[in-house]
Design brief:
- α1 packs across α2 and α3 runs antiparallel to α4.
- This protein starts with 21 loop residues before the first helix and ends with a helix.
- Helices cover 63% and strands 0% of the residues.
- The chain is extended, with a radius of gyration of 21 Å.
- The chain is mainly α.
Length: 111
Amino acid sequence: MARPKKPLHQLKTKRICLRLTVKEFLIVAEKAKRDDLKIVQYIRKKSTVGVIAIKEVSQERKDLMEGLVNNGKRFNSLTKKANSSIHNPRELCREIKKLRKILLALAKEIL
């Protein structure tokens, strides 16, 4: 049996695309977590009921995010090398091991 259809006034048919800086996203994500809501639920609640106040993100948090972004780029580069026909398996293995150590260190900082 199919799920019953929602009334028209309950359907979420409109979409808003929102671009945020990393700093803004981290602030919204932290506030959503604090309120025990998903990010989309938090934004929906604040946009229809209240005001979203943006506070400063700590320098440590900014550095951590920057490290994750840079290592993500490095990972993509290594993936491209691995998938190309021209690569040195030993060099690639060394690079992957270095990246793994960095990511494990970042994971310890996050958790």
